[in-house]
Amino acid sequence: MDTSNRRGALSRHSEFDSRLVARWIRACADEVSSHRDHLTQLDAAIGDADHGVNMDRGFSAAVSALEAIEGLPPGQILEQTGATLIVRVGGAAGPLYGSAFRRAGEHLGDVARFGPEELLAALREGLAAMQSLGAAVEGDKTIIDAWLPAVAALERGLRAGAAPNVAVRNAREAAEAGASRTTAMQARKGRASYLGPRSVGHQDPGATSTVLLFRALEKAVTAS
Hints:
Layout: H1 3-12, H2 18-34, H3 36-46, H4 51-69, H5 74-88, H6 93-108, H7 116-134, H8 144-159, H9 164-181, H10 205-222
Helix pairs in contact: 2-4, 2-5, 2-10, 3-4, 3-10, 4-5, 5-6, 6-7, 7-8, 8-9, 8-10, 9-10
């Protein structure tokens, strides 16, 4: 791809910048902190009972790192946030979410501003990174069951001409619906898969934390 042409296209359709990304990371930390105990309760039923604590630790560290990196381009902030999550979250969620943020940041590159279409593409790249790492598909009762429909809803909204805040709201609603559907699923990946049929009847904690990230994104975009 011609990088100069890509940057030119981005500059003509720019709405977001590093401030948007920093707001998103802070909102993620707030959402995770507020729902830490709920995430842990969900994980206690089908996992190791540490998802809430791990996610809270990781995003708290990501917010602490913002002071040093907030002046960087948005893509680099996402990459650094991903690296922090990989190191600090632990468990399966750390590499998965960390890889998603890093890949999204790599997609944005070093541009100073980006538009809704590039946000969509970055989130899609994050999804691809998680699927490549975890080999999960929709229906496996994982993060993917919330992230995939959220990206699809965001794309539908943008293609229909919706304003970015409306399209992101649609994405958050789709993530919520996807997470809710995991309750009836039998886990086929991760720690929960060891339970077999006993995993049915419990909402997946990873899909639930994905809802929080898209809720945070909605807040960040709405505040733009």
